[in-house]
Design brief:
The complex is a heterodimer of chains A (226) and B (480).
Chain A: H1 2-14, H2 18-21, E1 35-36, H3 41-47, E2 51-52, E3 56-60, H4 67-80, E4 85-89, H5 96-101, E5 109-113, H6 118-131, E6 136-140, H7 146-150, H8 155-164, E7 170-175, E8 187-190, E9 200-202, E10 210-213, E11 218-221
Parallel strand pairs in A: 3-7, 3-8, 4-5, 4-6, 6-7
Antiparallel strand pairs in A: 1-2, 8-11, 9-10
Chain B: H1 6-9, E1 21-22, E2 25-26, H2 40-44, E3 52-57, H3 60-73, E4 77-80, E5 84-88, H4 93-96, H5 99-112, E6 117-122, H6 125-131, E7 139-140, H7 145-149, H8 163-171, H9 177-181, H10 185-203, E8 220-230, H11 233-253, E9 256-267, E10 272-283, H12 286-299, E11 306-317, H13 333-347, E12 352-357, E13 366-369, E14 393-407, E15 410-415, E16 424-437, E17 447-456, E18 461-467, E19 473-479
Parallel strand pairs in B: 6-7
Antiparallel strand pairs in B: 1-2, 3-5, 3-6, 4-5, 8-11, 9-10, 9-11, 12-13, 14-15, 14-19, 15-16, 16-17, 17-18, 18-19
Helix pairs in contact in B: 11-12, 12-13
Classes of the chains: A alpha/beta (226), B alpha+beta (480).
Chain lengths: 226, 480
């Protein structure tokens, strides 16, 4: 029995499914090569170092909760490590100027600009993942109507997770609501602060006020429910 | 006392390499590492049917065309600097006749191409080369080479390696090559050594070594004329594969990679459908090249059925990249080229790649470039992000027209007709930030606007602007 269990755990570990299906191993801090750190301590710490490579994770939240800010921080951290990253931008919303200010090395970014066709964007994302060699691949569906996303076959995300399984690529979906994550992936839910608290504003008075950025309030949901 | 001949002196004669020329004059260099050429037989009697032509450009403009002219007449050519080419025309007798016929044909072709060249044809390439250094007329020598060179001034032998030797000869009163050639070889050897005897041999028009043909640049071209015209692209891929495989093999043998592929499809309507694919890095994998051509043709299909397929490859030396175990693996150039070609076919050309910021204050100023990540992290790459995180926008392209209610000069309420867009009462606002530019441009390039950052009651934080020319309001993007 013990031998069979050890064999099963070994098999799961090879498939990087051990953190999900076994109860023995906690969600512990992983080696650097196993995770893609986002550069935000409030996200990396509960994730055990960062987004799991070879797994599908998601960043979800409503408008102005910092989804793109978090994504740009993750891109910046990856490009600083010398990795190549890709963004499949379904609605062409990415702003290179603010991304460069956030620290993203744009020469290491492959930006695929789709005009709103989610199906075509999905094909593009599959092409990027199958090519391999990227450290972080983001599929931005944040401005796609939820109805259009729900029309994807249920196996879509399983297939996507299968493509990157065992690779060094961390895949992240950016969306308004939860879509899918793979067995070892995580959901980073960005909570909505009070409306009057949104954004970091400096300066007193109407004339002197300046918007400095957004406060990101991430809540990490791992497969173990933490 | 026995007078030594050239045969006795030959082992000590240094090699004369016409490539080592200075100002068009043969320079004598002793090259101990160079393979020893057995010159004894050639010294005594040059090959009976040997015939060489020398073309020397007289103008800078002609220098480029001389090499092409020589290649059109003979595959065995030797370059002497940029302006002079010696070619072996020994085998042209059947086609063009004797030496005079060959010279006439060379002169006629040079005239057609409007190349200013001096031309000499002689049984040795040394003589042919020397004869183009003086005078403007074409020279054809079929008999005694020494006699043909005799009238040339001694200056044609000038060169930095033996300037002292020539100065001594001038002090002796020698003025022509013939006067120098008439001196006894043993006396020259006794007084000037190996350098002197080598120059003496040149003065007599004797080749010290055979012609050293220039390997040239091979062309990588494959063409196939089809028995039946091809209308669909799918069967064309088999033809492309058949042409690319030998090309890939040839590139591998030459240690070259393709940096550009020129595809020419002759169509049944007698037009040619030409495509040029620039590759991000030298590559020679036949499957990759075929896929790239196939994807390009899917985006740019020919207008009619295909009769003849021709592929030409621009070669370049292969890549030598030292990878590090400490660096992250990146996609190979072949993978990137295939991926971007597939993505380009899917989402449209110019809609995938790397963004590059433009040196402009225009909002959203960027351009798309080919995705080709550097192997190593650049020294000037962006460092740590701003401590406050900065404002990261999700831009609307083009900006969305909105209706804004203004209270005491500040936006108070935003309304957008489109569904799912932010809108509502303005809770906070920062601005205006005035920006303008390209006022000299009469078209759409100019801008003059007041920008605001606003927090709305629905929780959205947006960037809006008022166009100062049209007084209309637009939503630039959402801070996210």
């Amino acid at each position: 029995m013990a031998t069979a269990r050890a064999a099963l755990e070994s098999l799961l570990r090879d498939r990087k499914l051990d953190v999900t299906l076994t109860t023995a191993r906690p969600w512990e801090t992983a080696a650097e090569y196993q995770v893609a750190a986002t550069g935000l301590a409030s996200v990396d710490r509960p994730l055990g170092g960062g987004l799991r490579r070879g797994h599908l994770s998601e960043i979800v939240g409503v408008r102005s909760t910092g989804r793109t800010t978090l994504l740009c921080r993750a891109f910046a951290a990856a490009t600083r490590r010398g990795e190549v990253v890709a963004l499949v931008d379904t609605c062409d919303r990415f702003d290179p100027v603010s991304a460069a200010e956030a620290g993203v090395d744009l020469s290491r970014l492959l930006w695929v600009r789709e005009r709103g066709d989610a199906v075509r964007a999905l094909k593009a994302a599959n092409l990027v993942l199958q090519a391999g060699g990227f450290g972080l691949v983001a599929f931005d569906l944040a401005d796609v109507p939820p109805m259009a996303i729900r029309q994807f076959p249920a196996t879509t995300w399983l297939r996507m997770a299968r493509v990157v399984e065992g690779s060094q690529t961390a895949v992240v979906l950016v969306a308004g609501e939860r879509i899918a994550r793979s067995a070892g992936g995580a959901t980073i839910a960005l909570d909505t602060p009070a409306a009057e608290a949104r954004g970091t504003w400096t300066g007193s008075g109407d004339r002197a006020r300046v918007l400095r950025g957004l406060d990101v309030h991430p809540r990490v949901i791992t497969p173990r429910g933490r | 006392m026995k007078i030594p001949s050239y045969d006795d002196l030959a082992p000590s004669i240094p090699d004369v390499h016409p490539r080592d020329t200075f100002a068009g004059v043969t320079r004598l260099v002793h090259e101990p590492e160079a393979p020893v050429v057995d010159v004894r037989g050639r010294l005594a009697a040059p090959a009976a049917h040997a015939l060489f032509a020398c073309l020397r450009a007289t103008t800078t403009a002609a220098a480029g065309g001389v090499l092409a002219l020589a290649r059109d007449f003979s595959p065995r050519i030797e370059r002497h600097g940029d302006a002079c080419v010696v070619l072996d025309v020994s085998g042209l007798g059947r086609l063009l006749g004797d030496a005079h016929g060959i010279a006439a044909e060379l002169r006629r072709t040079a005239g057609e191409r409007r190349l200013g060249v001096r031309l000499a044809v002689a049984p040795t390439h040394t003589a042919a080369c020397l004869l183009t250094l003086h005078g403007g007329d074409d020279v054809v020598v079929t008999g005694d080479v020494g006699a043909a060179l005799a009238s040339l001034p001694l200056a044609v032998l000038d060169g930095p390696a033996h300037a002292t030797l020539l100065e001594v000869l001038r002090r002796w009163g020698l003025r022509t090559v013939g006067e120098f050639a008439a001196l006894p070889a043993d006396e020259i050897a006794a007084r000037f050594g190996a350098l002197g005897i080598a120059l003496h041999r040149v003065a007599r028009g004797i080749d010290a070594r055979p012609l050293d043909p220039h390997p040239g640049v091979p062309r990588f071209v494959e063409s196939l004329e089809l028995d039946w015209p091809i209308e669909a692209l799918e069967p064309l891929t088999f033809v492309l594969a058949r042409l690319l495989e030998p090309l890939s093999l040839a590139l591998e043998r030459a240690d070259r990679g393709a940096v550009a592929i020129r595809l020419a499809l002759r169509l049944t309507d007698r037009t040619t459908h030409a495509r040029l694919l620039q590759l991000p890095a030298p590559m020679r994998d036949a499957r990759v090249l075929r896929t790239l051509l196939q994807l390009d043709l899917e985006s740019h299909p020919p207008s009619a059925a295909i009769d003849v397929v021709t592929i030409e490859i621009d070669p370049a030396p292969g890549r030598i990249v030292q990878f590090s175990l400490l660096e992250h693996a990146t996609p190979s150039p072949e993978t990137v080229a295939t991926l971007t070609a597939r993505l380009g076919a899917l989402v449209g050309e110019g809609r995938c790649g790397s963004p590059v910021l433009l040196d402009s204050h225009r909002p959203d100023a960027f351009a798309m470039t080919r995705f080709g990540p550097p192997v190593r992290v650049r020294a000037g790459a962006p460092g740590e992000p701003r401590r406050d995180g900065g404002v990261v926008l999700r831009r609307f392209r083009p900006p969305v027209a909105i209706r804004v209610a203004v209270d005491r000069g500040r936006p108070a309420h935003i309304a957008i007709d489109r569904k799912g867009m932010p809108g509502g009462r303005v809770e906070r606002a920062a601005g205006p930030w005035r920006s303008s530019g390209a006022w000299w441009d009469a078209g759409d390039a100019r801008w003059d606007r007041d920008e605001w950052d606003v927090a709305l009651a629905d929780g959205s934080v947006c960037r809006i602007h008022r166009d100062r020319e049209t007084e209309r309001w637009f939503l630039n993007g959402v801070v996210d």
